[in-house]
């Protein structure tokens, strides 16, 4: 499961990519909003597609098909924010090694639960980004969404 966590948390990882140089909080918010909304438009549907795939898994082979969906989405997201297949920190993104992935009914239940939570958080971030005009509004919106 630890190997899959970076894939399942794609929007949060992309959101955490910090721009170079010094910017004030509002500049960073505006830049993040401009970069993140398009990424979230594609990553959330990919997460939902992965969830549907995960719910149908019955083997490691099935699971690897689901991993491929999110890996492709992550690579597209990184390219769209200017990172290619690497993060803005110059390190390759964490990708699970297929031999390290195990499938079990218990793991499936946990992955579905984790991905559902990640989708809800991502949808909250997307909604708050879309309707917030400042970092203070974003903070307030996210606090309300967490309740």
TrEMBL record:
Stretches for region Disordered: 78-103
UniProt signal peptide: 1-16
Keywords, comma-separated and alphabetical: Signal
Domain of life the protein comes from: Bacteria
Key word Signal present: yes
Protein name, entry field: tRNA methyltransferase
């Amino acid at each position: 499961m630890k190997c899959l966590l970076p894939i399942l948390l794609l929007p949060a990882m992309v959101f955490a990519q910090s721009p170079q140089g010094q910017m004030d909080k509002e500049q960073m918010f505006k830049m993040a909003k401009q970069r993140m909304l398009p990424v979230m438009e594609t990553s959330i549907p990919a997460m939902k597609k992965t969830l549907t795939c995960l719910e149908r898994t019955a083997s490691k082979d099935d699971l690897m098909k689901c991993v491929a969906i999110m890996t492709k989405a992550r690579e597209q997201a990184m390219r769209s924010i200017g990172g290619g297949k690497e993060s803005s920190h110059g390190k390759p993104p964490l990708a699970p090694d297929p031999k390290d992935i195990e499938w079990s009914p218990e793991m499936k239940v946990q992955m579905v639960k984790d991905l559902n939570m990640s989708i809800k958080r991502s949808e909250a971030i997307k909604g708050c980004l879309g309707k917030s005009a400042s970092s203070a509004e974003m903070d307030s919106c996210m606090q309300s969404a967490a309740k």
